[in-house]
User: Which sequence fits this backbone?
């Protein structure tokens, strides 16, 4: 059976035109391909940062101690087959707005340490893997940082037990046809479309 | 490099004083103090929720010769509040503002494989470059659960190499040198064989869940 549910975590700034267009295109393609999805504008969400208390593992399994928008986002992630992460490339990593939501994936994992292909990771709580698509925007080309952003998505994919994943970098001022072309290719890779 | 006289430790963990980041950072600071440095410490977690604390921290950054950022690894990179610390200090102080100062990054993580901490150190490195710091090196500690926020002075056997690595780092920096390769290698070695470590950690989780009365609910899927 095809995977059919996605969660979009948009950690971009309000003035990020490339991120805005990317999200629009992804949402349109998901709709067209018959996917259901949740879509979060994280800069407007009330999400407390993870405080590593492990309540979500050892006291109320699957539920964060913080009763805020983050609980909804965790649930959206837990239900999804595909996670879409949108962020300005921030020192090579995710923005704090994206990261505060991404860190809240903890309850959607089990606490246990288990080896997967020679590396330790947490099993996902639902037992299903997540496919991942990350979109990073950057003001000017920076090979080192773009590489780091892709490497991080690769690490994320190992942790999420992803079968398919891809990472796309968009330059400020990049033309809409170019953005569309990159995204269409990436969405084929993560099997939103064929 | 110039021998630092003022050192600022930035602790990235939300667990603050009780964190393994503090254990590592404090031990390094103590060794630097013994060699004549004066040290200050701030906690990144809620720093920019309080403007008074934020201003104090910015002031401490501007007078420090050396900044040590000690942080846990969350989901393959730095915790959101460490990213916020970086975004805020960059926005408020500006690119290149830390020119002439040095930067050491220390990350710790629960897993056994050093490679799982490398992206976090690379992000610290990129931040340091943008801020104008001279990068003095990054240390990665796997199996941080073996330390669990305890004072390193109070831990024996398993933490021996961790203390050795930090001691060596302090000596090098206080002699005007970068973090030695040997210290990085010592720090990155596992304290226990990974399969034994995983058994210990998994048992600890089950024990704590039992104490909380949720031993049989650990696998719950409380989502619609």
Assistant:
């Amino acid at each position: 059976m095809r995977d059919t549910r996605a969660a979009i975590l948009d950690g971009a700034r309000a003035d990020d035109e490339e991120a805005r267009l990317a999200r629009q295109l992804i949402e349109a393609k998901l709709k067209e391909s018959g996917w259901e999805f949740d879509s979060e504008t994280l800069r407007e969400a009330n999400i407390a940062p993870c405080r590593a208390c492990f309540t979500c593992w050892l006291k109320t399994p699957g539920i964060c101690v913080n009763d805020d928008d983050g609980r909804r986002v965790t649930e959206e992630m837990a239900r999804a087959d595909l996670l879409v992460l949108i962020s300005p490339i921030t020192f090579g990593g995710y923005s704090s707005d994206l990261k505060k939501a991404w860190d809240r994936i903890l309850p959607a994992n089990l606490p246990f340490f288990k080896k997967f292909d020679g590396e330790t990771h947490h099993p996902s709580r639902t037992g299903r893997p997540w496919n991942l698509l990350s979109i990073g925007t950057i003001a000017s080309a920076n090979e080192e940082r773009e590489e780091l952003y892709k490497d991080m998505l690769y690490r994320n994919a190992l942790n999420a037990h992803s079968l398919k994943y891809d990472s796309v970098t968009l330059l400020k001022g990049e033309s809409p046809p170019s953005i569309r072309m990159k995204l269409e290719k990436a969405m084929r890779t993560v099997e939103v479309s064929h | 490099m110039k021998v630092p006289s003022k050192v600022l430790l930035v602790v990235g963990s939300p667990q603050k004083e009780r964190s393994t980041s503090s254990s590592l950072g404090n031990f390094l600071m103590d060794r630097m103090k013994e060699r004549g440095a004066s040290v200050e410490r701030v906690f990144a977690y809620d720093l920019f929720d309080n403007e008074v604390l934020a201003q104090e921290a910015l002031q401490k950054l501007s007078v420090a010769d050396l900044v040590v950022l000690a942080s846990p690894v969350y989901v393959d990179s730095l915790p959101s509040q460490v990213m916020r610390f970086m975004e805020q200090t960059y926005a408020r102080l500006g690119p290149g503002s830390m020119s002439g100062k040095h930067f050491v990054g220390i990350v710790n993580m629960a897993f056994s494989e050093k490679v799982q901490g490398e992206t976090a150190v690379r992000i610290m490195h990129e931040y340091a470059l943008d801020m104008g710091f001279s990068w003095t090196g990054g240390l990665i500690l796997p199996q941080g659960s073996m330390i669990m926020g305890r004072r390193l002075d109070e831990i024996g056997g398993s933490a021996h190499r961790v203390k050795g690595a930090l001691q060596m780092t302090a000596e090098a920096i206080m002699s005007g040198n970068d973090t030695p390769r040997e210290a990085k290698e010592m720090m990155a070695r596992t304290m226990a064989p990974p399969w034994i470590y995983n058994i210990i950690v998994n048992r600890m989780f089950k024990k704590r869940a039992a104490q909380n009365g949720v031993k049989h609910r650990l696998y719950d899927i409380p989502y619609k």
